[in-house]
Design brief:
Elements: H1 2-21, E1 28-30, E2 45-47, E3 63-69, H2 82-95, E4 99-105, H3 120-124, E5 129-132, E6 138-141, H4 146-163, E7 169-173, H5 196-209, E8 214-217, E9 231-237, H6 250-256, E10 268-272, H7 277-281, H8 292-299, E11 303-305, H9 316-327, E12 333-343, E13 346-355, E14 367-370, E15 375-377, E16 390-397, E17 404-411, E18 418-419, E19 430-435
Parallel strand pairs: 2-11, 3-4, 4-7, 7-8, 8-9, 9-10
Antiparallel strand pairs: 1-19, 5-6, 12-13, 13-16, 14-15, 14-17, 17-18, 17-19
Helix pairs in contact: 4-5
């Protein structure tokens, strides 16, 4: 009993010492914490198609969608000119603080580019042409020709050599195969489609070559995607997304292929089906479309092409619908608590950040805590912050009277927009308190 009493006394002394050591920091007054949606954050939300001068910015956006013909990146003789073809677009997009999302294609129906998207050397080596009338007509190469597949595998490696990990690129969709690079062809030329083995070759080339930049492909269950290293894009979002009785619907395919949890490490994106965009912004119902909010929550979608939101001329109500729907995609980080304790004369700062969104962020921007005089990079990784969870970012700093303390999340490339916290008063940084 006496031995137990001694232990309790020592424990109480230790507790008292810790309390004294970590008392509230003298003069610190915390900012009132209120939630306020941040709009236009990186790597999430509605995005427009690329244009030379950018899109209307009534609805804030962080990314721009780009279709790239193969012939812009490989010349007719088979020589690679990837940087020459992509840099003008990446420089223009990044100069606006935005990131690119792009897809390389060989076949774009009803486009004046037509078969010019295919470098001449591909035809010269004997790859067959398949004309078709569907979707406005066009010419498809024979994707079942192994010579073409071998070239595509090599191309993926060359593309990664130049651009894997480039912060100006948010996502790349696999493209390359099928109409619009969407991994399907019309039934009249179904013999032109790549085999499952060939599809797997291309998917594995992306997995093998891209270690940092996130890759998405069109269909869950595509051969080669089963190991969870590739995300997906639903290009008929809200139209062919949710319906268990339709085996070709996006979420049905995700369930069948056991990939409903892939969003935890790989991004889900796509396009809001164009025919329903205008009605959606007007809060009108489009027949046969599924509820947007339910589609977002089920798929954990982070980004969608939504051109109608960026054409200009929207009413204020339409702008508000677009802004809030855009913000509901992907991650949403908000400060929920702030504690500052005295620690051997310094300040030990602990900031709780919650992800109230539907997905994580698919990059790992640094999180800093500090003052104008000094800021320190915290050791925690915000990319690990899953929906509904809270992470506590901590650091120890010197403070003096008059100091304002802030937390900020870095941008993803030089000149890019910072990740904003969803808190009242937050801009590129959020002032969490002041020492009086």
């Amino acid at each position: 009993m006496r031995f137990l009493l001694k232990i309790l006394i020592r424990l109480n002394i230790l507790i008292l010492a810790v309390v004294l050591l970590f008392g509230n920091y003298p003069g610190f007054i915390a900012t009132e914490i209120k939630y306020e949606t941040a709009y236009g954050n990186p790597m999430k939300g509605f995005i427009p198609f690329y244009s030379e001068n950018g899109a209307d910015e009534s609805v804030p956006y962080s990314m721009e969608w780009l279709y790239v013909p193969m012939s812009a990146l490989v010349d007719d003789s088979g020589e690679y000119k990837i940087k020459e073809g992509l840099e003008p677009y990446l420089e223009k997009i990044s100069s606006r603080g935005h990131q690119a999302v792009f897809r390389v294609f060989l076949d774009y129906p009803s486009s004046e580019i037509g078969e010019k998207a295919v470098p001449r050397f591909i035809w010269d080596m004997g790859v067959k042409k398949y004309p078709y009338d569907e979707y406005g007509g066009g010419v498809s190469p024979d994707y079942s020709d192994q010579r073409l597949i071998d070239f595509l595998v090599e191309f993926v490696g060359k593309l990664a050599d130049e651009y894997d990990g480039d912060g100006r690129i948010a996502y790349i969709t696999t493209g390359l195969i099928g109409h619009w690079g969407e991994w399907h062809v019309c039934t009249s030329i179904k013999q032109a489609m790549a085999s499952d083995k060939q599809k797997k070759q291309v998917i594995r080339a992306f997995e093998r070559s891209f270690k940092q930049t996130k890759i998405l492909t069109r269909y869950p269950g595509t051969p080669g995607t089963g190991n969870g290293k590739i995300g997906f894009h639903d290009d008929s979002f809200t139209f062919e997304t949710l319906n268990d009785s339709k085996n070709y619907y996006f979420y049905t395919k995700m369930k069948k292929s056991l990939q409903t949890g892939v969003w935890k490490s790989q991004a889900i994106g796509g396009e809001f089906r164009p025919e329903g965009q205008e009605n959606f912004l007007k809060n009108a119902v489009t027949d046969d479309y599924q509820p947007f909010d339910e589609c977002v929550k089920k798929t954990h979608c982070s980004w969608l092409m939504m051109q109608t939101a960026f054409n200009g001329g929207l009413s204020q109500d339409e702008i508000n619908v677009a802004k809030n729907a855009s913000a509901s995609l992907g991650y949403d980080f908000t400060v929920t608590s702030v504690t500052v304790r005295k620690f051997f004369g310094k300040a030990c700062i602990r900031v709780g950040v919650k992800n109230t969104g539907v997905a994580p962020i698919y990059a790992d921007p640094a999180v800093y805590i500090g003052t104008e005089a000094s800021e320190i990079k915290t050791g925690q990784h915000i990319s690990n912050l899953m929906p509904g969870k809270t992470e506590y970012f901590t650091t120890v700093v010197d403070l003096k009277k008059g100091d304002e303390i802030y937390i900020r999340i870095d941008s993803l490339f030089d000149g890019g927009h910072a990740v904003r916290l969803s808190n009242t008063g937050a801009k590129d940084r959020f002032i969490i308190g002041k020492v009086n």
